[in-house]
Structures are given as C-alpha cells and as structure tokens.
Amino acid sequence: LTLLTELREAVERGELRLYLQPKLALDDGRVIGAEALVRWQHRERGLVPPGEFIPFAEQTGFIRVLTLWVFEEAARHHRRLGAGAAELVLSVNLSTRDLLDPELPLKFAAVLARHRVPAEAFCFEITESAIMDDPARALAILDRLSEMGFQLSIDDFGTGYSSLAYLKRLPVDEIKIDQSFVRSMQSERDDATIVRSTIDLAHNLGLQVVAEGVESAEVWNMLRELGCDQAQGYHMGRPMPVDEFARFVERKP
Ligand code: G
Ligand code: G
Ligand code: NA
Ligand code: MN
After folding, report:
1. Which domains does the chain show, CATH number per domain?
2. Taking a C-beta distance cutoff of 8 angstroms, is the pair 38, 128 a contact?
3. What is the pLDDT of residue 253?
4. Distance from the CA of 34 to the center of ligand 1, in angstroms?
5. What ipTM describes this predicted complex?
6. Structure pTM?
7. Angle at Cα 237 formed by Cα 82 and Cα 32, nearest 5°?
8. Ligand 1 within 6 A of 70 CB?
C-alpha cells in the first residue's frame, strides 16, 4: 500500500483528528483563538506525527484534500466551543499547493455556508516561501480570501525569502514570529533583538503580532514587556483534542 492510498483511506475511515493549540492575549492571558493542526490516528501504527505525512502530502498535492478537511473540521467545531467561543478565531495552515488552486475561495465559501459560520472566525496562516513560489497567483487568491472576510497571517516570519515590499502589498492582518527566535530569546541577545524589531515592524505596519514557541514564563514576560500582542507555545498549552481545548477555554484564569 502506498502512503497516498493510505492517506486517502485515512480520510475515508475517519482516522484524522483535529488538534487545537491555544493562542493567548499577552496583556491579560485570555484565550483568543487556536491554531488547527492535523493528527493521524492510524489503526495499527497509533498516532502518526504530521512530519511523516504532511511533506509527502505537499509533494503529491494531497495537501489540498487535507487543508479542506482541516478547515471543514474547524468550521464544524467552531459553534460548540463553549461560552465566549463566538469570538474565538481558528487558524488553519495553507500550503504552496493551496495557493495555486484558483478554486480555493469557492471551496471555502461552500464550507462556511454548510456550517453557517462567518469568515471572520477564521485565519489562514501562510509562510513566506509558499507565497514566493508564484507570487502573482498567490496574491490573487489571498486578495479574494481577504475580501471574503478571512484573516490572513504570515507564518514562520523571518525564516523565508520574502521582501518587505510583498508584506506591504499583501492583505495580511498578522505576523507570527518564528519559534526559532522566540524559544531562547531570554538567553540569546540576537534573538531578542530580532523579536523586538519584528514587533516594532508589525506595529508600524498596523499588524497584530504573535510569538510562537513560548516555552517559559520568562519568555512570556519579556514578550509582554515588548508589547507583543499574542503568544502560543508549550508553556501555555500544547496542541490538544477539541474537547480538551473547549475545557481549556472555560477554565478559570
Ligand atoms: O504539531 P506539529 O507537530 O503539529 O506539526 C508539525 C508540522 O506539520 C508543522 O510544520 C505544521 O505546520 C505541520 N502541520 C500540522 N498540521 C498541519 C495542517 O493541517 N496543514 C499543514 N499545511 N501543515 C500542518
Ligand atoms: O509550522 P508551524 O509553525 O505551522 O507549526 C507549529 C508547530 O510548532 C507544531 O508542530 C507545534 O506542535 C509546534 N509548537 C507549538 N508550540 C511550540 C513550542 O512552544 N515549542 C516547540 N518546540 N514547538 C512548538
Ligand atoms: Na502555522
Ligand atoms: Mn509557524
């Protein structure tokens, strides 16, 4: 059995699981959303890590099916996420292949209609390199998604080849500082400088800024002092099943 056949069967058999990792506001620690991440619960092999099938799915184009599955699940769950959940924003990762699919906005519109959820409740995370593969086509799709009301975020910011000129032209709302800069910013002076400069750049462009890979209270406090808007990382919450995330949202601070 090839991996592609197995992946197709995984979708049909319902072996994929939606996991959510909390995103918190740095000023008061409230949960404001989550990043959706896919997991594969294989009937024999157990939990298969995404690193073992996402790159393959990207090469073969099957990622388009996975992306649509993740967005559909996120839309389906959005309503039942508990008190105050109406304001939660769920972020879904898009890959290069998704940004080359001119039908993508139509497919997403159908999902919104099916689950009766507003586009504003979702954000799409795109890496710089995914955009740079075919900037003109990517830009056309991103413009359309933005017009529909979706939020857009630049993922792994600072690690790809992009130009600030594109950042200006893209209809983005948010920048996510890559975890490689955040994780050790309390001990590495250069990392702290990059994080501080990125926060300033984002704010000067009128964008929200999220720090990924927050693994300690020390880093959380530094980010707060630097005026970063949101944080995501193991210190606050790992990616978790939807039911667990619903309890996480309702917990007392
Ligand atoms: O938790 P984490 O182990 O989920 O994910 C490992 C890698 O797999 C990360 O680079 C992450 O971006 C990627 N990944 C996880 N879920 C998805 C998804 O739904 N879509 C895409 N494109 N990538 C994902
Ligand atoms: O590639 P992307 O940034 O979309 O994927 C997020 C990845 O980062 C997932 O694999 C997720 O599990 C992982 N992640 C999230 N928070 C942390 C963290 O605090 N530390 C580490 N090491 N990884 C994290
Ligand atoms: Na992401
Ligand atoms: Mn990232």
Report:
1. 3-250 (3.20.20.450)
2. no
3. 63
4. 13
5. 0.96
6. 0.96
7. 45
8. yes
